[in-house]
Amino acid sequence: MAPGPRRSVLYTPASNAKALAKARDLAADAIIIDLEDSVAPDHKPAARASAVETIKAGGFGGRELVLRVNGARTPWGAEDLAAAIAVAPDAILLPKVEGPEAILAATRALREGGAPERIKLWAMIETPLAILNVGAIADAASDSRLAALVMGLNDLAKETRARLTPGRPAALAWLSLSVAAARAHGRDIIDGVYNDFNDAVGFKAECEQGRDLGCDGKTLIHPSQIDICNAAFAPSAAEVAMARAIVAAFALPENAGKGAIQLEGKMVERLHVEIARRTVAVAEGIEALPRTAR
């Protein structure tokens, strides 16, 4: 089954039972159950057990369920990955990926562990080396399970000593390069978090910026950010109507051999048909979500 939209992707600490329970009823498109940054070292084994039980229990409806494991070189990474393979979430998020080798190793581990093919991999892009290698990461092997890149801008800022000021000028090169890499190799890409969840105006602006840069959605740190994010990354009713009109116009027999036509006073090229079809597909994917998740 093809994944639904990935507009809003909420991080939820695996060590927070209350947050895990609440996540089942939130309107986020995807939930990341986090074993890494949000869990203190002493609590990681217990958090892993909690994550396993949460995924087994289910109840997340149409939301994509992702488990972020600790890195392969950490004391917890191997057990996290083994637990993920056993419990089979929709995807496993690998932290601090710096080259395609990490993707291929995880893909091999999933296959050797008998994990269903539906289980995909997401890769955190959060180090300078990851940015330098993002094309190779997004490429990986055609038979790898990589489905999405996830931007970790806080870590990138820390490692590069950049400052994430309003408008994110320091991050634009990272984001644009990663978007290009994702699109070149058919992967989705999710923008990084906005740290001040009390600043709705700034958050909305950053969602719109990420959308305009080409991202599919945004990672979130608080449920209050979900509705704004969903609205920003969803096509408007006017955009969907125009997209349907473009698809219908080029389907007419008289336009079959044309590279461009006039529609509603605008010149529309055949390349816009592909854009229009994707807009319609996103809108239909949102409409297909459970009503509580739209």
Describe what is shown at a glance:
The protein has 294 residues and is of the alpha/beta class. It has twelve helices and ten strands.
Walkthrough of the structure:
The chain is α/β, with parallel strands linked by helices. The protein has 2 domains: 8-232, TIM Barrel (Alpha-Beta Barrel); 237-293, Head-to-tail joining protein W, gpW, CATH 3.30.1580. The chain is 44% helix and 16% strand. The protein is built from 12 helices and 10 strands. It has helices spanning 17-23, 44-57, 77-87, 100-112, 128-132, 134-139, 153-160, 172-184, 200-213, 226-232, 237-251, 271-287; strands at 8-13, 30-34, 64-68, 91-94, 120-125, 146-151, 188-191, 217-220, 260-263, 266-269. An 8-stranded parallel beta barrel has the order 1-2-3-4-5-6-7-8, surrounded by 6 helices. The protein has a two-stranded antiparallel ribbon with strand order 9-10. α3 (77-87) links the parallel β3 (64-68) and β4. α11 packs across α12. The longest helix is centred in the last third of the chain and has 17 residues, at 271-287. It is globular, with a radius of gyration of 20 Å. The relative contact order is 0.12.
Number of helices: 12
**In percent, how helical is the residue content?**
40-55%
State the total count of DSSP E strands.
Answer: 10
Strand order in space, largest sheet: 1-2-3-4-5-6-7-8
Q: Mind describing the biggest β-sheet?
A: 8 strands, parallel, barrel
| Total domains | 2
CATH superfamily of the largest domain: Phosphoenolpyruvate-binding domains
CATH fold-level topology of the largest domain: TIM Barrel
**The CATH top-level class label of the largest domain:** Alpha Beta
Architecture of the largest domain, CATH level 2?
Alpha-Beta Barrel
Radius of gyration: 20 Å
Helix- and strand-based class?
Answer: alpha/beta
How much of the sequence lies in strands comes to: 15-25%
The residue ranges in which pLDDT falls below 50 over 5 or more consecutive positions are: none
Order of helices and strands: EHEHEHEHEHHEHHEHEHHEEH
